[in-house]
Amino acid sequence: MRHLPTHKMADFTTLVVGILLIGVVHGQLDTTVCTPYQATSGSPMPPPPPNTFETHIEANINNRNYTVDYHVWYDKPNNRVATHIRNAGARKEKLFRFDTNEYFNVDRDMGVCRVTPLNTADQLYLFGKPVGNTAVMKTPFEFLNFNMSGTSYQYVNKTKIRGVSCNMWRSCNYWPNVKASFIAEHYFSDTNWMTSRLTAQLPVRVHIYGNAVDPDGKKRRFDHMYEFIDFHVQSTKGKSSFPYETPTGVYCPRAKNLKPLPTPTSAFHFTSEVIFGQTISRIKEWYDSDMSLVRYDYDPLGDYTWGTKPLTQVHDFNTGVAYVIDQLRGNCSAVPISSTGFDSRKADATHARIRTAKEFFYFDKGSYIYEGRRIARGIITDVWTAQRNDWPAPNSPNSTWSWYFATSNYTANLADVLSFGNPVRLTLKGGLGQYYVYNIYDYDERRPMIWSYDISKCFNYTSRQDFSFRLAGSYRSLVSGNMELFRYACLRAIVKAGTSNNMNLSPLRVFNIQIDFADNSDIIVMFTLLDKAPQIGSVSNPKPENNLAVVSKSISAAINGGQLIVKLQVPLKNTASMVAKKYSLAQTQNMIKNAYYQNVQTSSSSSGVSGGAMAGMGVALLVVFFVIGVAVTYVYYRKQGGAFGPKKFGDEDITTSES
Fold it and tell me: What is the per-residue pLDDT across 145-189, written as a single tens digit (0 to 9) for each?
């Protein structure tokens, strides 16, 4: 007997399964094996095959002394078949998608996927047939070779298989593709035998044996036993499609993308949980592309350059300055934003720029393909997967990125519907064996409040000044009922008044806006004005700024000229334009301490102020946000000697500069 090479054994056994599963074609039948049978009048008929089912098949190749295990899902209504194959320790997955004419051949152990047209696939015969430039799925009758015109089968008797009472049918078959003549013995559970699935007449075994003719003309004997285990007749209604999709984290190049990738919005904030090995870290992140601002709060991980206390970093890409703040001690250092940081890219050899929104989510490179649906954190999600070779550095081994978004039928406890979608998880499989999981919580597209980017701790008393001015009129009830909107209205008015010499006043420099009411109905507005940023920025086109003295004079001149106007617009209610009283601007040290510190502690709160209102501050810039997760790049750049941030907190005064 001639044996096939070992590397062809798996394909051959799959090929022979086709003998079981394809329809019979009459031809050069070897009559020494069998002659066509005739059905006996009045004998039981084979049961009708189901449209949808799942089963395990143990294929015992008796003439070669080995076993192959198959897990098969068959879904005729949706034109798809999935098979998982285990042979000689290797795990394969083959997906037949007749609706898109795609054949997926996946090595589950190596994570390698090949996609080819289904109509030209070498194993199409198992479940379908080519018709022109596409493929047509076989009917259940064709698939199980029963009740077909021209099939010669015969009822034999009742018997027991693996202890199960069965009916047995025998057929004589010829398969011209390999010139095989064989007997197929089919065993179905008896009508009075209740299976574990509470369904009668299910396949239990198929035994095929006969001769095949090799290309050299020699006959070869074969004997295969196929045991059907846990045959489950399914309904497609409400059933999961997961078995018919590629394995999690496997990228299939050249697969058709059946659903477009979501488009990021211009502002959002969320909390991420980063899992790497046995390490769990949490990071809170804020992003505003119109304002060119990024903030993230985190605990130092591994490298204690900044100590072990919780840290806040605010990156102002308008000036190119990164502010690193110790949340407990209040220390602050200002350094150039690194061009190798996770929220920046190199603008040129010496300058940094903020990442675009697509770059933040790593959507900018790599072709993302819709993978299907997965369960993540108990949520049904749509999954897109891409592969790229530029992480964590150019020309790195391929890494695989999978983004999980909650399906559209999920709603979030938010005022507005999420236009980007609700990101739930990112998994990152690095080319050197790294594996990261980013779980995303509290995702919110509402624009982060400017108070979230508080840098006031980075300016000492010589670099800040408290001011107050008055607004006349009977607006107390309107203001007290819409305090946060009013604070934003004051901020816009102050920013406009402080802009002079074609240099905008950054909203970051207006801090701690507080409101009080005078006995004569005047509204008292108090605020802190910070000096301009240290001249150490790393961006190629930093926005020039006036110093504290120039801005103060500009605001004073606007008030004295009746040009500082606070416009409060309350949705669906009133609109009021409040003019600051002339000559009411005053320097003051009478800020309410409790209110001051309360403001600092609640700076991360969010409001539903519109993007248009924020952009109206006059500082809108084309920009983006930052890359997912801190931990991965933090560890990488530290090991590579790259600049993640400043090396220590300095005691020097970082806020003084020449005017």
Answer: 554 555 567 899 999 999 999 999 998 888 776 788 999 899 999
Q: For residue 528, which of 469, 585, 466, 470 has the smallest C-alpha distance?
A: 466
- CA 263 from chain centre, in angstroms, equals 12
> Could you tell me the two tokens for 185?
């013995």
- Reading the block at residue 601, the tokens are 């502690």
List of residues 6+ apart from 73 with CB closer than 8 A: 53, 54, 81, 82, 83, 243, 244
Q: What is the per-residue pLDDT across 310-331, written as a single tens digit (0 to 9) for each?
A: 999 999 999 999 999 999 888 8
The mean-pLDDT minimum among 129-143, 146-160, 539-553 falls in 146-160
How would you classify the pairing of strands 379-388 and 399-406?
antiparallel
Say which residue the tokens 């600051």 belong to.
Answer: 580
| Phi, psi torsion values for 641, nearest 5 degrees | 80, 10
Examine domains 6-244 and 267-447+625-640 and report if their fold is the same: yes
**561-618 per-position pLDDT tens digit:** 999 999 998 887 778 999 999 999 999 864 433 333 333 333 333 333 333 333 333 3
User: Within 13 Å of residue 116, how many CA atoms lie on the same side as its CB?
Assistant: 10
* Residue range 478-496, pLDDT digits in tens: 999 899 999 999 999 999 9
Mean pLDDT of the chain: 82
CATH of 267-447+625-640, one of 3.10.150, 3.40.1090, 1.10.3470, 2.50.20: 2.50.20
Amino acid at 6: T
Could you say which DSSP state residue 652 is in?
S
Look at the domain 6-244 and name its fold: outer membrane lipoprotein receptor (LolB), chain A (2.50.20)
What's the confidence (pLDDT) of residue 148?
53
Domain 455-602 has CATH 3.40.50: no
pLDDT given at position 126: 81
Domain assignments of the chain as residue spans, ordered by start: 6-244, 267-447+625-640, 455-602
Residue with tokens 């409101």: 515
Instruction: List Cβ neighbours of 277 (8 Å cut-off, separation of 6 or more).
Output: none
* Residue 150: per-residue pLDDT: 53
Cβ proximity of 269 and 287 under 8 Å: yes
Token digits for 641?
A: 């000697």
Residue by residue, DSSP assigns 339-356 as TTSTTEEESSSS-EEEPP
Report the 3 state secondary structure along 232-260: EECCCCCCCCHHHCCCCCCCCCCCCCCCC
- Cβ neighbourhood burial of 278 (10 Å; 0-12, 13-18, 19+): exposed
pLDDT for the residue numbered 386: 94
User: Do 153 and 46 contact (CB within 8 A), yes or no?
Assistant: yes
